[in-house]
UniProtKB/TrEMBL annotation:
Assembly and binders: Homodimer.
Lineage: Bacteria, Pseudomonadati, Pseudomonadota, Alphaproteobacteria, Hyphomicrobiales
Species this chain originates from: Bradyrhizobium forestalis
Function, in words: Catalyzes the oxidation of 5,10-methylenetetrahydrofolate to 5,10-methenyltetrahydrofolate and then the hydrolysis of 5,10-methenyltetrahydrofolate to 10-formyltetrahydrofolate.
Alphabetized Pfam families for the sequence: THF_DHG_CYH (PF00763), THF_DHG_CYH_C (PF02882)
Protein's name in the database: Bifunctional protein FolD
Amino acid sequence: MTAEIIDGKVIAADLRARVADEVARVKREHNLVPGLAVVLVGNDPASEVYVRSKHTQTQAAGMASFEHKLPTDVSQQDLLTLVAKLNRDPAVHGILVQLPLPKGLNTEAVINAIDPAKDVDGLHPNNAGRLAGGFEALSPCTPLGCIILTKSVHASLEGMNAIVIGRSNLVGRPLVQLLLNENATVTIAHSRSRDLPGLVRKADLVYAAVGRPEMVRGDWLKPGATVIDVGINRIPKEDGKTRLVGDVAYQEALAVAGAITPVPGGVGQMTVACLLVNTLRAACAIAGLPKPAV
Ligand SMILES: Nc1nc(=O)c2c([nH]1)NC[C@@H]1CN(c3ccc(C(=O)N[C@@H](CCC(=O)O)C(=O)O)cc3)C=[N+]21
Ligand SMILES: [Mg+2]
């Protein structure tokens, strides 16, 4: 048996096309151009790649993109001043501060300073709390993408056993909430969990979001399981270059899983596409328009 490969590139392209249609419609009918501001502090090469990809795709969807690059040694006060300015800017409907921030900056204070209505990362306690309470909220992009990828395999997740490995605010915790909303039965595992292979073996849906290269092995999986690999780990190759691997041992998992996302070409693609979705939704909500069709 070999697993179905869940093609994040195709699914993300389809989602971006639907966002672009809705962007064109709100522009035509309401003269509204959704705008996304991305703030990058420092010059981490991987972050620069993501930020450039967000910029390109935002513009390709017909939205406005505002990039703000700040030096590594920017002060907390200057960063908060920029966030306050973006909060007031009527052309900006979404604000994303790329994480992690350099040492010395207070991430929590920066997130708290973002207007919750513009918090397209879904990290502000107002949005995180609303999501946890089962209320409508802007939800983090990577977990939203994970749900869409899962639903490309299973129309309904009701009653399925899901395991989320990892409990970060950006991925694990919000993903648990979204899975609960789908009526899945959810186990939350992490670096301190006892007998992780045993827990994974019970799961119909496996979400690996720990940031440890190829940690989840093929023989941990229940045959036929759907595997969503959130990991993006750069590991050195013999020739001195690097290659990307996920948190799942992909080749091993292919032989056991029913369906699996590749890295790259899986969840990462969806993260950016869902950021466009959130920006469109935020823009419509701020403008007092009905919810968009995406
Ligand atoms: N506030 C905040 N929000 C984020 O959503 C956020 C963040 N900070 N910090 C960094 C992580 C990482 N992230 C990715 C986005 C796109 C790809 C992506 O497009 N990946 C492609 C290609 C990857 C490559 O080739 O480097 C793929 O998997 O196919 C990956 C990872 C968003 N993040
Ligand atoms: Mg952890």
